[in-house]
Design brief:
374 residues, two-stranded antiparallel sheet
């Protein structure tokens, strides 16, 4: 709902704004007065040189004093399809007191100046006729102020609506991202606990080691779980811990390799972005592998982009050319990336010649740093 605009908020300017307001009206008066001066003398005006200037400046300054009242009621009386008729009627009624006040102020200024310069009042033979003349003449000014004010109000509301829509969309995206990130933690925990359960029947000591490593991993994860972005170094530490648990479980069936570009470690990446990718690699490197599976993590900076490759080199039982589909973890990751980067990233699953898979993630470095700084 639009917050009501008070008259005080309209007239409560800072000194700088008052100076701008006064300067704007003075500039308008100078432009009008120069034309009035030229027209008056071309028409054979024989009065004093200063008089046309007084006439214009008195009118402009008087108008500057009543304009805030008109602006105030423009804010109070919306001009929309529901109440446009009542608003027009209200302004017709408002026109007379506002413009009578305007004419009175204008003539008062002229009286003061004429008294100071000539010692006599500004000459008016017929006050009633003069007021009627000025009221008819002021219709154009009144309508111009209404038009400009309602145009400004309309443009401002459109801009506010866009800002509000962007804010709500941002909050919605943030809520969705937080929900997606929360989904990863129980998914990861379930898989790890399942691994512990399976190992418990085979090797109790190994299962105990996995539990100990898991507790360390969870403590580390809790420190970053509330952060949408972490450094690649932090993300790799979590990933190493996760793979150490996998090494304890799979033993000689798994080998890990790291080829980390040191210029990439301080770049910001989404929190928990690598874990589902590594989990996917484990699935194809070890769980369906005939022999020893290898997982290699490669990072490199390519211009303004960060590329992360997670390659499983295991020989799969299924040796056809089918590219693995996105599971829940990868689908979650893809959705998060869409929210964060739109079309400025890429996540590809590439079939390797040896039967393995390369999950290749490319992120814009500038975008990541910008998100973190903001």
């Amino acid at each position: 709902m639009q917050k009501p605009v008070s008259f005080r908020s309209i007239i409560q300017f800072s000194l700088k704004k008052y100076a701008i307001w006064f300067g704007g009206w003075t500039f308008a008066a100078l432009m009008l007065a120069s034309n009035e001066f030229s027209d008056a003398y071309r028409a054979g005006f024989e009065g004093d040189t200063w008089e046309p200037w007084v006439w214009i400046f008195s009118g402009v300054y008087a108008l500057s004093l009543v304009t805030p009242v008109i602006i105030y009621f423009c804010h109070r009386w919306p001009l929309d399809h529901e109440n446009w008729l009542s608003t027009i009627l209200k302004f017709i009624l408002l026109y007379f007191p506002v413009m009578i006040t305007f004419v009175t102020i204008m003539h008062s200024i002229r009286h003061v100046v004429y008294l100071m310069v000539r010692g006599t009042y500004y000459p008016i033979d017929d006050y009633v006729g003069r007021y009627i003349y000025e009221l008819n003449k002021g219709i154009t000014l009144f309508l111009a102020i209404l038009f400009l004010t309602y145009t400004y109000i309309s443009l401002r509301r459109i801009q506010e609506s866009k800002i509000e829509a962007a804010r709500l969309q941002g909050e919605l995206n943030l809520a969705r991202l937080e929900n997606l990130q929360r989904q990863l933690q129980p998914h990861f925990l379930f898989n790890t606990l399942n691994a512990i359960s399976n190992t418990m029947y085979e090797d109790v000591d190994k299962a105990d080691s996995i539990i100990g490593r898991l507790s360390e991993l969870l403590r580390f994860s809790l420190t970053t779980s509330q952060q949408p972005f972490v450094t690649l170094k932090q993300e790799l530490e979590i990933t190493r811990a996760f793979l150490e648990i996998a090494l304890l479980r799979y033993g000689d069936k798994l080998q890990t390799k790291y080829n980390i570009d040191q210029s990439s470690v301080d770049i910001m990446v989404p929190s928990m972005i690598l874990q589902p990718l590594v989990e996917n690699a484990l699935k194809y490197a070890v769980e369906v592998s005939n022999g020893t599976g290898t997982i290699e993590i490669i990072t490199k900076v390519l211009g303004e982009e960060l590329q992360i490759d997670i390659i499983d080199g295991g020989a799969q039982e299924n040796s056809d050319d089918t590219v693995p589909s996105f599971g829940i973890g990868l689908s979650n990751t893809r959705t998060r990336l869409e929210y964060l980067y739109a079309n400025k990233h890429s996540l590809k699953i590439i079939k390797q010649e040896n039967g393995g898979t390369n999950v290749s993630l490319t992120l814009p470095i500038d975008k990541i740093i910008e998100e973190n700084d903001g």
